[in-house]
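haha ok so turns out i had the wrong file open the whole time. this is the CORRECT one, sorry everyone. sequence first:
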Amino acid sequence: MRSIYPYVLLCLLFTGCKKSEISSPQNDLNLLLQKINSLRQSGCNCGTEFMTPVAPLSSNTLLDNAATAHAKDMAQRSYFAHISPDGNMPEERAMLAGYTGNVKAENLGKGYANSDQVISAWKNSTSHCKAMMDPNTKEAGVGFNQNYWVVVFGNPL
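then structure:
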């Protein structure tokens, strides 16, 4: 009689590592803005264009709230987009959270296990990379829910 343990282990490995079931520890979310700032301070290539070092972003609680609300909404309603099914855009979500500055950009990620992976994905996307490196952006808010990552970039008035 053959043992079923290797098959059980194999099944657990395949079902336990689904990208859609990955969750992030809270402290990794807290590191996200620090990692963006590290990238901003060193400069990087966004596609073929070198982006020179720029000032770090400050954290904004109102933008955190807007980012977290959008991550929760995407998780609850199973969509992945900058525009919600209701038609709300990043600027509107930030305004609803009480933010009075200008929203410059929003980066989204889905299914990444940690902040290093999502930063790497954004860095490898020219538009997302340029959003992180925009010298006209002064502050940001981060949010995470289930496997959805959101960063909202703003500029105070």
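Residues 1-25 have pLDDT under 50 and may be disordered.
again sry for the mixup
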